[in-house]
Write a structure and sequence with these properties.
It is built from 20 helices and 17 strands. By secondary structure, the chain is an alpha/beta fold. It folds into 4 domains: about 80 residues, no CATH class; about 120 residues, Probable tRNA modification gtpase trme, domain 1 (Gyrase A, domain 2), CATH 3.30.1360; about 120 residues, Up-down Bundle (Four Helix Bundle (Hemerythrin (Met), subunit A)); about 170 residues, P-loop containing nucleotide triphosphate hydrolases (Rossmann fold, 3-Layer(aba) Sandwich), CATH 3.40.50. The chain has a 7-stranded mixed β-sheet with strand order 5-6-7-8-4-3-9. Strands 11-12-10-13-16-17 form a 6-stranded mixed β-sheet, sandwiched between helices. A two-stranded antiparallel sheet has the order 1-2. Helix 1 runs antiparallel to helix 2, helix 9 runs antiparallel to helix 10 and helix 18 packs antiparallel against helix 19. It binds guanosine-5'-triphosphate (GTP), potassium ion (K) and magnesium ion (MG). The site of magnesium ion has 6 residues, from helix 12.
Length: about 550
């Protein structure tokens, strides 16, 4: 560690210099990649910054956590924890192994250029020296050679990205080679012979993109979801998250909390009436109330984002022989479930992951619900009830001829009592076997469907296919609810947001007499939002105070 940096950090630990000064000095002297400064809950043990400051040879990478402690007197104490990790250049095959047209080997880190010089031989650059280096962001036809023997391993393309304008924000070299086991193995073996390279660990390129500030945690999740997306709706949602729309919205939320905190901090430091205008605390309360309502609104999304990611869990249920398994087979377009005329055919739950008009749906076919002496069937009925209870969406299948009644009051649909008990206001209804009731008109049945306590119902014949197209499109639309992707796509976001809500509520419970406590709650709230994106910065609070209040003018 350079003495100037060490001394600056020590002074920072004593509160003599600002984090910004440390950052500036650190950046200029040691070419730091990035510095993370966090607000942490009060630290039980004071940490000796010196102990955590270690020396590293090249390309020092620092991760610093600032423990911002608020004492009862309202004075801030800052502590610095410094850890250096040596940043080596990593390499890996970035495409699936096996026979294909192209394979991409990615090399990222400070020595990517050195790797280029050792293994890339470009015929078009005969006149130029190797030391002049590649032209960044430009594909170059080249030969890939073994760095020791100069043996040509493959004929391919090389692409050099100069950091920070690369995925990882470091220098990145991409080798586009032919995809074959032997070629890939020879190139990777050659790379392993370069002492300044090491194989990348799982997710390490993305991790570096995160550490370099290219992606926040929500974008990292979005990127993974994008790669994992199996349906069109999932792809669109993940693309939006990966593109940073979630990041922006959470960041806005955090900034709002920090503004609130800045008001309260100013109140602590300067007190109302002297340097500050009146009503600052009220202003902070109003903002916090507004924020609280917004967080509450984000949380009441019926888990749509998480459901969309993992697939909507749909349970098909109903009386025996209604055509539940026939429906599953129709949706799957294959004979996945056994269908017979015998009531009680399905016993266990049969689950299939299906794509319904671009929506990921995990469909469960269940045993027909009835009271029976058959031990095995009874277990099946119990499982069916459980599946209905745990599903995100339920669809009741009824056989029209079995439920249609005609009496003095006219035509009615009678749902068996033990089925009624499982009906929710959100249960969709499918009336099947319309082919068996030719005398009943479509209008009549539509009127009856409207009487059911269900958001939507359809009339079909699964054997003749009548009405099935309308059912599928109508049902998919009903499942989609709205096109917009909710902000929360991972339960991790929900957990942190619930904490935000708790801290905001706790702040709203405080009075202007205990502003120190109130500030603490707001700090926790900001920290909880910061955990969603993975970026927490104590300097933000200081920046806002200085910008908005012109202290010490
Ligand atoms: N006529 C007619 N028969 C149908 C229709 N749909 C299904 N069926 C028949 O109804 C019988 C029962 O169908 P399943 O799909 O096994 O019914 P289920 O609800 O799964 O029955 P369980 O598993 O025993 O509860 C079979 O003989 C099907 O061929 C339809 O639209 N019209
Ligand atoms: K059956
Ligand atoms: Mg069945």
């Amino acid at each position: 560690m350079l003495p100037a940096v060490r001394s600056c950090i020590t002074r920072f630990g004593r509160g003599k210099v600002s984090a910004g000064e440390v950052r500036r000095l650190g950046s200029s002297r040691t070419r730091l990649h990035r510095l993370q400064i966090c607000i942490c809950p009060p630290c039980p043990s004071r940490v000796n910054p010196q102990k955590h400051a270690t020396t590293s040879s090249r390309n020092l990478q620092c991760t610093r956590s600032v423990h911002y402690m608020q004492t009862s007197a309202g004075m801030g104490q800052r502590e610095l924890v410094l850890s250096d990790a040596q940043r080596r250049t990593i390499y890996a095959l970035s495409t699936p192994p096996g026979k294909a047209g192209v394979a991409v080997v990615r090399i990222s880190g400070p020595d990517a250029l050195a790797a280029w010089q050792r293994i890339v031989r470009s015929p078009s650059r005969k006149g130029k020296t190797r030391a002049s280096g590649p032209e960044p962001w430009k594909m170059e036809r080249c030969k890939i050679v073994d760095p020791m023997s100069e043996e040509v391993l493959d004929d391919g393309l090389a692409l050099f990205f100069r950091g920070p304008k690369s995925f990882t924000t470091e220098d990145v070299l991409e080798l586009h080679i032919h995809s074959g086991r032997a070629i890939i193995a020879s190139v990777l073996t050659s790379l392993s012979r370069l002492p300044f390279l090491r194989p990348a660990e799982a997710g390490e390129f993305t991790r570096r993109a995160f550490e370099g500030g290219r992606l926040d945690l929500t974008q990292v999740e979005g990127l993974k979801d994008l790669i994992d997306a199996e349906t069109e709706t999932q792809r669109k949602a993940a693309l939006r998250v990966a593109g940073g729309s979630t990041r922006t919205q959470f960041e806005e939320l955090r900034q709002e909390i920090i503004k609130c905190l800045a008001l309260v901090e100013a109140l602590i430091d300067f007190g109302e009436g002297e340097d500050l205008e009146e009503g600052v605390f009220e202003q902070a309360r109003e903002r916090a109330q507004h924020l609280r309502n917004r967080v509450q609104a984000i949380l009441s999304d019926n888990r749509r984002g998480e459901i969309l990611r993992s697939g909507i869990r749909l349970a098909i249920f109903g009386p025996p022989n209604a055509g539940k398994s026939s429906l599953l087979n129709f949706l799957a377009q294959r004979e996945a479930a056994i269908v017979t005329h015998i009531p009680g055919t399905t016993r266990d739950i049969l689950e299939l992951s299906l794509d319904i008009e671009g929506l990921p749906v995990i469909v469960a076919d269940t045993a027909g619900i009835r009271t029976t002496d058959d031990l095995v069937e009874n277990i099946g009925v119990e499982r069916a009830k459980q599946a209905v209870e745990t599903a995100d969406v339920t669809l009741l299948v009824l056989s029209l001829p079995d439920v249609l009644r005609y009496d003095q009051s006219g035509l009615r649909i009678v749902v068996p009592e033990h089925i009624k008990a499982l009906l929710l206001p959100t249960t969709f209804v499918l009336l099947n076997k319309m082919d068996l009731c030719p005398s009943v008109s479509l209008e009549q049945v539509e009127g009856l469907l409207a009487d059911l306590p269900s958001p939507a119902g359809w009339l079909v014949s699964l054997t003749s296919d009548a009405g099935t197209a309308q059912f599928v499109s109508g049902f998919a639309k009903a499942l989609q609810e709205r096109d917009d992707v909710p902000l929360i796509t991972h339960s991790r976001h929900r957990t942190h947001l619930e904490s935000v809500l708790r801290f905001l509520d706790a702040f709203l419970d405080t009075t202007s007499d205990d502003v120190v406590l109130g500030a603490e709650e707001l700090r926790y709230a900001a920290q909880a939002v910061g955990k969603i994106s993975g970026l927490i910065d104590v300097e933000d609070v200081l920046d806002v105070i200085f910008r908005d209040f012109c202290i010490g003018k």
